UniProtKB/TrEMBL annotation:
Species of origin: Aliirhizobium smilacinae
SUPFAM superfamilies per UniProt: GroES-like, NAD(P)-binding Rossmann-fold domains
Residue ranges constituting the Enoyl reductase (ER) domain according to the UniProt record: 11-322
Reactions it catalyzes: a 2,3-saturated acyl-[ACP] + NADP(+) = a (2E)-enoyl-[ACP] + NADPH + H(+)
Entries under Pfam families matching the protein: ADH_N, ADH_zinc_N
Keywords assigned by UniProt, alphabetized: Fatty acid biosynthesis, Fatty acid metabolism, Lipid biosynthesis, Lipid metabolism, NADP, Oxidoreductase, Transit peptide
Family label: Belongs to the zinc-containing alcohol dehydrogenase family. Quinone oxidoreductase subfamily.
GO molecular function, one term: enoyl-[acyl-carrier-protein] reductase (NADPH) activity
The protein's Enzyme Commission number: 1.3.1.104
Signal peptide positions (record): none
Record-level GO BP terms: fatty acid biosynthetic process
Name of the protein in its database record: enoyl-[acyl-carrier-protein] reductase
Length: 324
């Protein structure tokens, strides 16, 4: 079977290659899935480049989230069967077939497209878990940067469903209309002079409880400066590639708290019932159209290097997907 392999860490467009590998056999509690479409996430690219918190043994098959049709089930799997269409995370899913935990495989209703199903879990689950992590409730104001990213969009949409008010910061003027097309409101471009005053006008001066920072660098300090007393700043990503730059006076006089968020560490600590409820909320919201998962381009598996290059480009309006 075809698999997207990397034998060294580096630029994904340079080190990824499609090679033939043996068909994997599902072990106890696993399912084998014929990949239909897979998402290319930022953490996938960082993993291949050797810059992520997880470094697989090399050579490795890339990819962590996909959808497809169950092809075989392992011992002890009773609730799933061959032929079912599912979304499932699993290491090495940029391949014709991949293995996944049967417990984590999500059966898909017909109302969810393959394109949405390929990105159904990781980013939306991060967004929902972030909302719980910051402790935001109905009527609270929160603020996020990188709002036009996959997590940012989902965060804004799920917050709206829960009655949480969000100021959505973007770095390009064009991104304001992109988010408006998805029904996302209160979008502010930080490229505009006086954007902090615009934030104040949007909130009416109400305190902002928490900020979600996916950029780092000076953007972290900008976000912190908008928070109210005892505000929480959550570091979620580092798109700028720069360390967080925070004002000591904002930290001290606001009695602010800074925390890091990594779903890979948090998800395993969630009670099974809570995780199931979160997944159910995602499926319902995507199936109903309340949460939209955008797609930028779709590439064939054989063009994985081109797909990785496209996924790394700035200004995309949605996910780059790989089709099996």
């Amino acid at each position: 079977m075809r698999s997207a392999i990397y034998s060294r860490y580096g630029n994904p467009a340079d080190v990824l290659a499609v090679e033939e590998r043996p068909l994997p056999e599902p072990g106890p509690g696993q399912v084998r899935i014929r990949m239909g479409m897979a998402a290319i996430h930022n953490h996938d690219l960082l993993t291949v480049s050797g810059q992520y918190g997880i470094k697989p043994a090399l050579p490795a098959v890339a990819g962590t989230e996909a959808m497809g049709t169950i092809d075989a089930v392992g011992e002890g799997v009773l609730h799933l069967k061959a032929g079912q269409r599912v979304a499932a995370s699993g290491q090495g899913c940029w391949a014709d077939y991949y293995l996944a935990s049967a417990a984590g495989a999500v059966p898909l209703p017909a109302s969810i497209s393959d394109e949405a199903a390929a990105q159904l879990i990781s980013m939306p689950l991060s967004a929902l878990t972030l909302l719980d992590f910051i402790g935001a409730g109905k009527g609270d104001w929160v603020i996020q940067n990188a709002a036009n990213g996959a997590v940012g969009k989902a965060f804004a949409m799920f917050a709206r469903k829960r009655g949480i008010r969000v100021v959505n910061l973007v770095r390009r003027d064009a991104a304001v209309s992109e988010l408006a097309d998805l029904g996302i409101e209160d979008v502010v471009s930080t490229s505009q002079d006086g954007w902090k005053e615009t934030v104040q006008a949007i909130t009416g001066g109400a305190p902002i409880k928490a900020g979600v920072d996916g950029v780092g660098g000076s953007a972290s300090g900008d976000l912190l400066s908008t928070l109210g007393e005892n505000g929480l700043l959550v570091s979620f990503g580092l798109m700028s590639g720069q360390p967080m730059q925070l004002s000591a006076s904002d930290m001290v006089f606001k009695q602010a708290v800074v925390k890091g968020f990594w779903l890979a560490k948090i998800a395993p600590t969630l009670p099974r019932e809570e995780l199931t409820n979160l997944i159910g909320e995602i499926v319902q919201a995507v199936a109903s159209g309340e949460v939209q998962l955008s797609v930028s381009e779709v590439f064939g598996l054989s063009d994985i290097a081109k797909a990785a290059a496209a996924a790394g480009e700035a200004g995309r309006k949605g996910k780059v997907l790989v089709q099996g």
